[in-house]
Design goal:
128 residues; globular; 5 helices; mainly alpha
Length: 128
């Protein structure tokens, strides 16, 4: 069960990132709320897809070490945390309804909180 939990985030982030890289236009149209953020820009979608794949690699490195090597997750937590912060600030500035925040919870907030928790939990541990 722990392995399933450990591997779920890198696999899901990696699949999302690959989808963004390979098929940016279908991704843009399928993800709720994305079309409301501005016009389609394939380069931008692919850039973010690359960031998600990089996050998946860092989390995969951590998962392969059975929860070790927290240092590999630090840049992941930084990117996902800033990404979450952008969503929160934009929601506050633009007065988005709570339903937007709930919609983004699984895809934006939960991965960021999980990565931050992994780093926080690993602080002070001696890396192998």
């Amino acid at each position: 069960m722990r392995a399933l939990i450990r591997w779920s985030l890198p696999v899901l982030l990696g699949l999302n990132g690959l989808f963004m890289l390979i098929a940016p236009y279908p991704w843009y149209g399928m993800v709720p709320g994305v079309t409301e953020t501005g016009p389609f820009n394939p380069h931008f979608v692919r850039d973010i897809g690359a960031a998600y794949v990089a996050c998946a690699v860092g989390l995969g490195w951590w998962a392969a070490r059975r929860g070790g090597r927290v240092g590999a997750v630090l840049p992941v937590a930084v990117f996902l945390g800033i990404h979450m912060g952008v969503h929160i600030v934009e929601s506050l500035i633009h007065g988005h309804p709570v339903s937007d925040i709930a919609r983004d919870f699984v895809g934006v907030y939960l991965p960021a909180l999980a990565a931050i928790w992994i780093v926080w939990r690993g602080l002070g541990r001696k890396e192998a």
